[in-house]
Inverse folding.
């Protein structure tokens, strides 16, 4: 076997390495591409259903318009509840941190009190800065309008010509491996679609359940805790743990007994998500060990911050599938090579 026999595997490794490196060297471009692919993965099944009755371009346009209208409606509904509560939470945060410092557990431990005192001071400063910069944040959202328009256009063309683009990219590899590359692309897209759709469902379920718990218990800032819990579900393993600690700790300022009940609620919710919801939605399709997820999230956070933690699992999925494809191809080539050598020796044996 020669190096040229592994040409496709080498090209696959280099190609996906360069694609993933764009998140480090060109984050804005990578962000646009990633969000567009995310929307394309979510909306493709609907486009396929409409395509049986309508032209592909018209189907893609109708589905994308419907999605935008739905997103605007949901954003309006959520904002009407979340923004007032979040503003009140930011305003009350300095008082909340002072109450946290008076908890018996912190008072009894001088080490914890000293270490957390610096954290509380930083959080107070952050809360005041966040309140002052709310107008700036609103203006920055409008400044991203051009990026949103670009994302929608890219998504439309991905929905319309996704198969042609995928076929074109596969044709850039050696001809005899065209089917292999297409199969790899399909496996990656299917795995990412399963993961993303499942994460969205889990995030929505978690946010609704947390909001109902805090609302029915009469606890303040229910929509804030629901948003935190739902968002943190995008970061597997570590995210739910952080959200649970956040909710339990701040609930302790109301009543320590209620905080214990809240901790039990989060524990039950996490166990149900991980042992029932996750296996039902994702099953064994990703087959990622928790250690790989944790280390990937930590590495992603070190390299790209919060976006890196969010993108860690999709990156791991892509790398895993590419490595598996290269390894499987190597095994098949070795088997064919050994078989050809054996066939070549058989006439001599007679």
């Amino acid at each position: 076997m020669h190096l040229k026999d592994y040409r496709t595997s080498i090209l696959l490794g280099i190609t996906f390495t360069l694609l993933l490196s764009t998140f480090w060297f060109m984050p804005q471009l990578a962000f646009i591409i990633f969000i567009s692919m995310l929307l394309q993965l979510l909306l493709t099944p609907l486009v396929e259903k409409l395509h049986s009755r309508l032209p592909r371009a018209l189907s893609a346009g109708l589905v994308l318009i419907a999605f935008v209208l739905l997103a605007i409606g949901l954003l309006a509904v959520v904002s009407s509840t979340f923004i007032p509560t979040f503003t009140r939470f930011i305003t009350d945060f300095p008082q909340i941190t002072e109450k946290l410092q008076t908890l018996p557990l912190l008072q009894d431990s001088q080490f914890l009190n000293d270490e957390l005192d610096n954290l509380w001071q930083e959080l107070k400063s952050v809360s005041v800065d966040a309140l002052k910069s709310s107008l700036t944040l609103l203006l920055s959202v409008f400044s991203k309008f051009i990026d949103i328009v670009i994302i929608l256009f890219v998504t439309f063309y991905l929905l319309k010509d996704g198969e042609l683009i995928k076929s074109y990219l596969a044709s850039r590899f050696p001809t005899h491996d065209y089917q292999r590359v297409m199969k790899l692309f399909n496996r990656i897209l299917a795995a990412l679609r399963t993961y993303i759709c499942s994460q969205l469902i889990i995030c929505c379920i978690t946010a609704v359940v947390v909001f109902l718990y805090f609302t029915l218990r009469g606890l303040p800032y229910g929509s804030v805790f629901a948003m935190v819990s739902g968002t943190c579900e995008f970061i597997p393993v570590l995210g739910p743990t952080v959200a649970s600690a956040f909710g339990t700790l701040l609930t302790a300022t109301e009543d320590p007994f209620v905080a214990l009940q809240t901790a039990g609620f989060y524990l039950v919710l996490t166990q149900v998500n991980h042992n029932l919801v996750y296996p039902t939605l994702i099953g064994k399709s990703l087959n990622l060990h928790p250690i790989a997820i944790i280390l990937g999230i930590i590495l992603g956070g070190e390299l790209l911050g919060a976006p890196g933690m969010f993108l860690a699992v999709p990156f791991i999925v892509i790398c895993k599938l590419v490595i598996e494809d290269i390894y499987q191809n190597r095994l098949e080539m070795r088997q064919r090579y050994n078989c050809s050598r054996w066939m070549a020796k058989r006439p001599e044996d007679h």
Residues 3-340 form one domain. DSSP finds 13 helices and no strands in the chain.
